[in-house]
């Protein structure tokens, strides 16, 4: 669990902090799908079943982080590269989120 910053349901125009879990897992899918739904691509986010509902409802959020990791394939193998600010400050990662019934938190694509 980690915090996300999103628009408030109770006070439109305001922001709220909510707990979330990493990975978009639609209500119709098993939790194991989370590892396959890390990245929503701009060109397909509105059409993919895992992301389209959250996209259509404009469920956008910001995730505060110290850093994040992405694979680098320069050597032909996926090597984890840490991405962070040079001044050591926090980064803000733009994401979409989804609510999964039966779980009292948001799912972030995150």
TrEMBL record:
Top class in the EC scheme: hydrolase
Short name of any one Pfam family annotated for the protein: SRAP
Signal peptide positions (record): none
Residues that span the membrane, as ranges: none
EC number: 3.4.-.-
Database matches in InterPro entries: SRAP, SRAP-like
Presence of keyword Disulfide bond: no
Key words, A-Z: Covalent protein-DNA linkage, DNA damage, DNA-binding, Hydrolase, Lyase, Protease
PANTHER family noted in UniProt: ABASIC SITE PROCESSING PROTEIN HMCES, DC12-RELATED
Family classification: Belongs to the SOS response-associated peptidase family.
The protein's name: Abasic site processing protein
């Amino acid at each position: 669990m980690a915090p996300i910053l999103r628009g408030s349901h109770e006070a439109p125009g305001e922001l709220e902090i909510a707990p979330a879990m990493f990975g978009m897992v639609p209500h119709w899918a098993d939790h194991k799908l989370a590892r396959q739904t890390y990245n929503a691509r701009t060109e397909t986010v509105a059409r993919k079943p895992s992301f389209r509902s959250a996209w259509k409802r404009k469920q956008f959020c910001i995730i505060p982080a110290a850093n994040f990791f992405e694979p680098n394939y320069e050597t032909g193998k996926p090597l984890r590269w840490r991405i962070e600010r040079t001044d050591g400050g926090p980064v803000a990662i733009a994401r979409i989120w989804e609510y999964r019934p039966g779980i009292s938190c948001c799912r972030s694509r995150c």
